[in-house]
Design a protein that fits this description.
Layout (H helix, E strand, L loop, with lengths): L7 E3 L17 E9 L10 E10 L2 E11 L8 H7 L3 H4 L5 H12 L5 E4 L2 H13 L3 E3 L4 E3 H8 L8 H7 L10 H21 L5 H8 L3
Parallel strand pairs: 1-6, 2-5, 5-7
Antiparallel strand pairs: 2-3, 3-4
Helix pairs in contact: 5-7, 6-7
GO molecular function, one term: DNA-directed DNA polymerase activity
Protein name: DNA polymerase-3 subunit epsilon
Enzyme class: transferase
């Protein structure tokens, strides 16, 4: 028999074995966003910016925010530079993806219940494939998508635009198509959604997982 291939796991740095009965207003979350060279993450496209911020006690901890450009070791397409404002010159001396990802997981610091994002599947895949290129496996960290919370609160919504949702829910809007700007916008939107969910009886970590993960 052939031995099973060995997998090296990259730590998510999230809180482990968090009781489902834990009140939402005692939880910590790590909200993040990425900008990339394109959408074909499994092949040629790479992360070019990563931004993140902490939420604690249903409040955004603004001083915890961090942003870094990321060297993709490839050219940034012109249309991406036009969209994000990120040019090849800005990423040429930037940290590589591994350094940026380590900063993200350091922010979680084993205190955050999960990662949070707006259409977070894309950002999770961006990190997953950066790690995979280094033979590392990110073992399905818990993640909550603001889209799922919006779907619970207002099922009639059928768009994904972050700025539209932030405007409709009366929360702050930061620079669009910037990883740190979108992370901050998402964080304030998420806090507002948490308060609405709390008022509707979503009071525990288990309750939040049920609607946030789209189960």
């Amino acid at each position: 028999m052939f031995p099973f291939a060995r997998k090296d796991y990259f730590p998510s740095n999230l809180a482990e074995n968090l009781p489902l009965s834990t009140p939402i207003d005692t939880l910590q979350f790590t909200v993040f966003d990425t900008e990339t060279t394109g959408f074909n993450l499994a092949k040629e496209d790479r992360i070019i910016e990563l931004g993140a911020v902490t939420i604690k006690g249903m409040e955004v901890i603004e001083h915890s925010a961090f942003q870094t450009y990321v060297n993709p070791n490839r050219q940034i397409p012109r249309e991406i530079t036009e969209l994000t404002g990120i040019a090849n010159e800005q990423v040429a001396i930037a940290p590589d993806a591994m350094q940026a990802i380590r900063r993200l997981t350091s922010l979680a610091d084993k205190k955050s219940a999960c990662y949070v994002g707006h259409y977070i599947a894309f950002d999770m895949h961006a990190i997953k494939y950066e790690l995979k290129r280094r033979n590392l496996h990110w073992k399905a960290p818990k993640a909550i998508d603001t889209l799922n919370l919006i779907g619970y609160i207002a099922p009639s919504y059928d768009m994904r635009d972050l700025e539209k949702y932030a405007r409709d829910f009366g929360t702050r809007i930061y620079q669009r198509h910037s990883a740190i700007g979108d992370a901050m916008t998402t964080a304030f939107l998420f806090v507002e959604l948490l308060h609405i969910c709390h008022d509707r009886g979503i009071r525990t970590w288990g309750d939040l997982l049920r609607i946030g993960e789209g189960a």
